[in-house]
Design a protein that fits this description.
By secondary structure, the chain is of the alpha/beta class. The protein has one domain: TIM Barrel, CATH 3.20.20. It has 12 helices and 7 strands. It has a 7-stranded parallel beta sheet with strand order 1-7-6-5-4-3-2. Helix 9 packs across helix 10 (about 230-250). It is globular and about 45 Å long.
């Protein structure tokens, strides 16, 4: 799978678990098959919606194995590596590539503040440890750092760092990145952005949890944008935006897991102590999915 092919709709997969926190492999396999049948362009396990920051490596490794085997090479798998230490992230990145992932989504959670140089060194070490493409991830709402354009220019010197998944919600910043780095760093939208606007400024796709619940609609949105059918795309985007709003008001994993349960996938609840979706939240998600036509 070449770097040029990382484009389109990549659902952030949930991690299905039972009440004891054990992975429900059959449910994950069914979800992968379902999403591929709906036309998604790739799969991203162990991202934010997949609770990548919460699981032990043993569970993460099982998730990667299940998704890679279920995908059967039909679509690329970009698996999340979410580790506070550079040493741990490098080890997991190497193991993730060996497990058959086509790419790495590199996430850096933090506790103590970091200088820009230390952030750059962390991602550079991950990239140099693997041969597959690396997608940089930034979410300044939850981390104590964010990429600056000079940091991205440094990281773009690594031949396999070719993509950025940005959850800042700052679309103006994305335009500045696109203008400065052009094809050296290709941009994926997050749920914090309006995806059709990201496509308009040259974004190559959307990596996010909503695609687990509305895959066909997300694929249609991307296809309209690729064909520059902007009026149709914007009308569809207006219909889908309510799900993004729900994600911003409630926990990502809780929203997607509750919605999937409503659609017949017994994925379970997020790991404690994460916030669970309350009854009011479930009603809101149910109504949104009903209005979109997937429930």
């Amino acid at each position: 799978m070449s770097q040029e092919e990382f484009a389109g709709i990549f659902p952030y997969l949930v991690t299905p678990i039972d009440q004891s926190g054990n992975l429900k492999e059959d449910v994950l396999r069914d979800l992968v098959n379902h999403l591929i049948s709906k036309g998604v362009h790739g799969l991203t396990p162990l991202g934010s919606t997949g609770e990548g920051a919460y699981f032990a490596w043993e569970v993460k490794k099982k998730v990667i194995d299940v998704v890679v085997k279920a995908a059967k090479g039909h679509v690329p798998v970009i698996a999340g590596v979410n580790e506070m230490t550079t040493h741990g992230a490098v080890k997991q990145a190497i193991a993730t590539e060996r497990a058959g992932a086509d790419g790495i989504l590199a996430v850096l959670p933090t506790y103590f503040p970091l200088a820009d140089i230390h952030v750059v060194e962390h991602f550079r070490a991950i990239a140099r440890a693997v041969s597959c493409p690396v997608v940089l991830y930034t979410n300044p709402k939850f981390a104590k750092w964010d990429f600056t354009i000079p940091m991205l220019e440094e990281l773009a010197e690594e031949p396999n760092i070719r993509y950025l998944k940005d959850a800042s919600g700052n679309t103006g910043k994305l335009l500045s990145i696109a203008n400065t780095l052009q094809d050296r760093i290709r941009i994926f939208s997050a749920s914090a952005h309006v995806p059709v606007f990201v496509f308009m400024i040259g974004g190559v796709g959307w990596m996010a949890g909503p695609a687990c619940l509305i895959p066909e609609q997300c694929v249609n949105l991307f296809n309209m944008a690729r064909e520059k059918r902007w009026e149709e795309a914007f009308e569809l985007q207006k219909t889908l935006w309510s799900l993004n709003v729900a994600f911003q008001n409630y926990s990502l994993a809780a929203c997607v897991k509750a919605g999937l349960e409503m659609q017949g996938f017994p994925v379970g609840s997020p790991l404690p102590p994460q916030r669970q979706l309350d009854e009011e939240g479930k009603k809101i998600v149910s109504q949104i999915l009903t209005n979109i036509g997937v429930l």
